[in-house]
Amino acid sequence: NRENFLHAERLHVMSELAASVSHEIRNPLTVTNGFLQLLKGSKTVTSDEKMYIDYSLKELERAEQIVSDFLAFAKPQSKNMVYSNLHEEFVYVKNILMPFARMNQVDIKCAFSNTLNLKYDKNQMQQSLLNLFKNGIESMKEKSGTLQIEVYDLEQNIIITVKDSGVGMTNEEIQKLGKPYYSTKKEGTGLGMLMVYGTISKVKGKIDVESKKGVGTTFTITIPV
Ligand code: ADP
Ligand code: MG
């Protein structure tokens, strides 16, 4: 339908744009970073000036983060598509996020079935799962909780559910998921869910969101095998 078409078109334009601009922006960021580091090492810099330099370096780091989120999203698709077991990606991402979860008093519980073979872009899938799990953990950081992840195959589909008992979303907020730069977080880039929607649409999957403010959120992703 039209809504889906517009969404796909938006993703396409975004990824084209991201690919061409990201590389160009990275160079000046690197150069500026280098000169600021030099300046910081100078003996004549006052402590106030050093503070300004540190702020600038921090902001550069943020810009760098935005560019890498963009680049990950823009990576050319078909040549990175491989036939693989999704199980590997879940284990990898879970391990990466363990320290972050522990820091926020969040447990991660996973349940898998064995055969989760599919053709997908490994890098993008890892990034997307990372974004999804990270959002879940971040939603629970004020009250601790458990991130419940289930992956199983059912009638020619792979079903992924990611459930948190975090802050939850209103219907209006759910509608905004995947819009570039939509974020309610102080340090958010608002590119995580864009990446998730992009990756899942590439494998012809769909995403259902069920959420209640103050109760939690469940993402259900269905991918045809
Ligand atoms: P970011 O995490 O950088 O803010 P995302 O695209 O990953 O950007 O998410 C966009 C917004 O969607 C978040 O800022 C948050 O408001 C909302 N969101 C995403 N996942 C969840 C979740 N599991 N629980 C509650 N809100 C969520
Ligand atoms: Mg996020």
From TrEMBL:
The keyword Kinase applies. Residues 20-225 form the Histidine kinase domain. Its main location: membrane. It is a multi-pass membrane protein. Its EC number is 2.7.13.3. It catalyses: ATP + protein L-histidine = ADP + protein N-phospho-L-histidine. The chain holds residues 187 to 411 of 411 of the full protein. It is found in: Cell membrane. It comes from Paenisporosarcina quisquiliarum. This is histidine kinase. The lineage of its organism: Bacteria, Bacillati, Bacillota, Bacilli, Bacillales. It comes from the Bacteria. One of its GO terms (molecular function) is phosphorelay sensor kinase activity. GO terms for biological process: cell wall organization. It is an enzyme of class 2 (transferase). Keywords: ATP-binding, Cell membrane, Kinase, Membrane, Nucleotide-binding, Phosphoprotein, Transferase, Transmembrane, Transmembrane helix, Two-component regulatory system. One of its GO terms (cellular component) is plasma membrane.
